[in-house]
Design goal:
By secondary structure, the chain is of the alpha+beta class. The chain is built from 15 helices and 19 strands.
């Protein structure tokens, strides 16, 4: 039965996590509505608080009806429902990608607000097959062609318990239980490449889908047994990440690893240093890899970072002005700034604002700054890095730059730590 398969999947994916809360993303389509009912049964059996999240992308007239329908289902199941809205700002370029990122930003921020650590999504077996075909068309490497049933976004664990369940089984479950759902009319449009691939797969023989699933399993196995261990070794051996939010890559050690792993190392560092949630495209990383092989110093920008070769090392630091966050008021004891730094205040301070250093501020306090340590660690790139660090201001006056122990008043006491979104157990800070 479908529920037994779902229960086996979710228990294996979550393990002994000791959860008391969990969220499920539900759009109103057949996949996510089926997931909601399955997750509700599982949550009841395990005494877990289940929250339902819907995101209206404001792109279709039907979307508000879908959200209202999901809200009614949630109410009937005595589950909390949260309706979120994505603002596309009438910008329709690269809309699918932006909408996806916006959707996950909204959902994971809500999870963080309510201390929910896990979000369930309705990606099923057919979705995995379509993703494989799309990535194959884009000439993705082995990491890109692999699939994962557990991912992280904004420090929230995204779990896909329907990964080995075809859409047909989900629809059959809903029909047998007389449960309605909405069909997204855009799914039949030839405007999107995914839909064209879906139509071709539907017309093809069943063995084509089975062969794709088999190939993906082989790739996942190769990744787990060869490339992931190599990636762990590469990062442990060749990477140094500093509390100032920059990193050095030892290019001599880097050179001995496979090209697939090299791409992942660069992307790993770009995600951590930029504070972004998503990796750069391969076509963006490839020019950097080519420059590295030329054995000459260079300085490029990529993915919100400056990438600079200094002899046998690659320095990566945050690019100034590239979507650095606006000022944030430090209302609570601690705050995450730029998705990279955690700032904690050890005493009450009125109207503290976290921001970055402006040129005017720098000119005012320049003579009082001790940058010797940062200068030494960063191979004299201290000034560029300084302008990407968090500072604390009161009434437009800089009162603290904790990284370099600058305090306008001895009574002002703050702590700062580098806390990027994507940190693995083999990452070490210097």
């Amino acid at each position: 039965m479908l529920y037994e398969k779902f229960e086996y999947n979710i228990n294996n994916l979550i393990g002994n996590f000791g959860l008391s809360k969990i969220a499920v993303a539900v759009s109103g389509g057949s996949d996510s509505v089926a997931l909601l009912y399955l997750a509700n049964i599982w949550a009841e059996k395990n005494n877990i608080e289940l929250s339902v999240i819907s995101v209206d992308h404001n792109l279709r007239e039907q979307s508000k009806q879908e959200t209202y329908y999901v809200q009614n289902i949630s109410n009937s199941l005595n589950r909390k429902h949260y309706s979120l809205s994505f603002d596309h700002q009438n910008n329709f370029s690269n809309l699918q990608e932006r909408a996806r990122a916006g959707r996950y930003d909204l959902m994971t921020n809500l999870c963080l607000e309510f201390d929910i650590l896990v979000l369930l999504t309705a990606h099923h077996e057919d979705d995995y097959v379509e993703n494989f075909c799309l990535r194959l068309e884009r000439n993705s490497g082995i990491f890109g062609l692999s699939s994962s049933n557990i991912n992280w976004y904004n420090n929230i664990q995204i779990i896909r318990p329907l990964y080995n369940i075809p859409k047909s089984e989900l629809v059959e479950y809903l029909v047998s239980h007389n449960i309605k759902w909405f069909e997204d009319e855009s799914n039949s449009s030839d405007k999107y490449r995914r839909n064209i691939i879906r139509q071709k797969l539907a017309k093809g023989a069943g063995y084509i889908k089975a062969e794709i699933i088999l190939q993906q399993l082989k790739i996942n196995d190769l990744l787990d047994n060869k490339f992931k261990p190599e990636l762990i070794s590469a990062i442990a051996e060749a990477v140094k990440i500093f509390e100032y939010g920059f990193a050095f890559l030892d290019l001599v050690k880097f050179d001995k690893f496979s090209n697939e792993v090299k791409v992942q190392i660069i992307n790993f560092l770009l995600i951590i240093i930029s504070g972004q949630f998503r990796a750069a495209r391969f076509y963006s990383v490839e020019p950097i890899l080519k420059l590295i092989t030329q054995d000459v110093n260079f300085k490029n920008t990529l993915h919100g970072c400056v990438v600079k070769r200094i002899q046998n090392e690659l320095l990566i630091y945050r690019e100034f002005g590239k979507k650095l966050p606006e000022s944030k008021i430090l209302l609570d004891k601690s705050i995450i700034w730029d998705n990279r730094f955690c700032i904690t205040k050890n005493q009450e301070n009125p109207d503290c604002v976290i921001t970055y250093l402006s040129l005017e501020d720098y000119k005012t306090i320049k003579k009082q700054l001790d940058l010797a340590h940062l200068k030494d660690l960063s191979c004299k790139n201290h000034n560029a890095i300084l302008f990407t660090l968090p500072i604390i201001k009161i009434l437009e006056k800089v009162i603290a730059i904790p990284h370099i122990s600058y305090y306008d008043n001895d009574m002002q006491n703050f702590e700062v730590s580098f806390a990027p979104n994507f940190v693995s157990r083999f990452t070490h800070f210097c």
